[in-house]
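Escalated from tier 1: 2-acetamido-2-deoxy-beta-D-glucopyranose holo job.
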Amino acid sequence: MVMPPLSFFIFFFFSISAAVSSGSLPQPAPKSLTIGYIQKAGDCNYRVNITTSCSSPFHITAEIGVLFGDAHGNQIYEPKLEVESSKALAKCSKDIFELTGPCTDQICFFYLYKKGSDDWIPETVEISSPDIDTVKYKYNSSIPEDTWYGFDDCQYFTSPPPPPPSPPAPSTAGHQRRLKWLAYVIPVLLSSAVL
Ligand SMILES: *[C@@H]1O[C@H](CO)[C@@H](O)[C@H](O)[C@H]1NC(C)=O
Ligand SMILES: *[C@@H]1O[C@H](CO)[C@@H](O)[C@H](O)[C@H]1NC(C)=O
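Tier 2 regenerated the structure:
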């Protein structure tokens, strides 16, 4: 049997991780996620709109928590969203939650947490605040119990990113994603060269 070269597998692996991290599908938070419990207080207001799928149950008793923030480690953490009626987070509903927390830069990650066994199916989540762009994430799938589950599109720069190369970019849309992709491809090319 002819084995494909190892670099093929490496490329395959990295292509998959690149696709997953592009934020198209919700996934469990990485083990490295740390919650800044002490950051609960703050001066900024956030509105989180959650729509629930029409395939979700008529009523849920599970407690739902949210955690979101920016690439600098600022987090808004609410372990249990306060619901005002038993219809909250029910089939086809749209619920709005007002949260307060530390002021953040652009929101780039969002996780939901479910404590309880109801098969709740969130559809979309939108987060807005006066000084940041509204962000929207699509779940449209049930979420596992006792797991932070969602999206992380943050680019965690420890220092400012280097200036872009001089040739003018034809279009800015998708530019960042392409750079991110390159970051995966370069190590692969290097490793193929070594192999
Ligand atoms: C949340 O819902 C309210 C009421 O429908 C709407 O005015 C607001 O624009 C929504 N915000 C976001 C971020 O979707
Ligand atoms: C979620 O899935 C349902 C059924 O598959 C579909 O009708 C609905 O449009 C989807 N919602 C979004 C926001 O994609």
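The pocket of 2-acetamido-2-deoxy-beta-D-glucopyranose (ligand 2) is lined by residues 53, 123-124, 138, 140 (CB under 6 Å).
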